[in-house]
Amino acid sequence: MVRIACVDGDGIGPELMDSAREVLRAAAELDGLEIVFGSEPGGAGTYLETGEPLAPGALERFRDEYDAVLKGPVGLPEVRKPDGTEAGVLGGVLRNGLDTYANVRPVRLLPGVPGTAERIDYVLVRENTEGLYLSRGSGVRNERAASDQLLMTRVGVERVVRFAFETARERAGAPADGVRRVTCVDKSNVLRSFAFFRDVFDEVAAEYPDVEADHRYTDAAAHDLVADPGRFDVLVTENFVGDMLSDLGAATVGGLGTCPAANIGAGTAYFEPAHGSAPAIAGQDRANPTSQVLSAVLLLEHLGHSATAKRITAAVESAYADGAIRLDGGSPERGTEAAAAAVVDRL
Ligand code: IPM
Ligand code: MN
């Protein structure tokens, strides 16, 4: 039995989550897998109603009563503090509250989708609990200046780098040349914190002689992820850099609508699209549910239900190959419900 806590989120979140639940239910039934869905409110809407982005005790319930969390996109543009930052950000509460230190963002070109290269299949591992984001809520700002502080700790860097090497060993995909590698993305030529990140990376890399240790400065990584993405296998980087590069990677494979993410911690994990809640198109049956469905696939893989995960992945790929889900400026030519039905048909 798999117990999944569902946080539907804001904007297009509920309709994406409906699609993901529909696909999960259908696939689980075919495989004789029992899935129980629970529901927890969360996001900017919840914050507006209650002053908190999650209900009391939700983090404990996620840890103790569920196997994993499936979350829709969250955030609303009007939910801002006077300093301009987002108020009640669920991501911060979940990532730090559950200590999900690895944000895993696979970037993979689906059949029939025009990408910037013929074959794109790599995993970006974004450090998820420190780096520049640790400054969230504690930066300073006045009329004339503002500052945020970036922090890297040995424990924080070591665990995420180790996670990246383990991912390179285990993952199914491989780069075009077949060499398993982890690329450390940093700005160690300019910033001490990133030089520290690279040194810790090199120390951990020595424990994985079977995986090639590779390095790129952040700017060169941005270039190569567009110009020569086929060489990448697993990348590991700091939180803020990872935030940018995962959107950049998404743009090379047809946009954010196909990009899932896993937030993995030692005790618990949650799964969500890599994109935002797109309130402008909410409730119009226009959002592409692929990112949410593939997030559910990551959840199943994480819990060891690889046969059901593969079944859904194959169905998504076949729906793309047949042109049943087509991207049209970031939204599918066919609607959300039709896209989910196309996947269910092909399970
Ligand atoms: C992401 C998002 C979040 C982030 C936002 C919504 C706070 O962009 O998950 O990439 O910056 O981490
Ligand atoms: Mn982002």
Detailed description of the structure:
The protein is of the alpha/beta class and 347 residues long. It has 2 domains: 1-108 and 254-347, Isopropylmalate Dehydrogenase, CATH 3.40.718; 116-252, Isopropylmalate Dehydrogenase, CATH 3.40.718. 39% of the residues lie in helices and 18% in strands. Helix 1 (13-31) links the parallel strand 1 and strand 2 (35-39). The longest helix has 19 residues, at 13-31. The structure holds 3-isopropylmalic acid and manganese (II) ion (MN). The site of 3-isopropylmalic acid (IPM) has 6 residues, from loops. 3-isopropylmalic acid binds next to loops. Residues 3-343 form the Isopropylmalate dehydrogenase-like domain. Keywords: Manganese, Metal-binding, NAD, Oxidoreductase. Its cofactor is Mn(2+); Mg(2+).
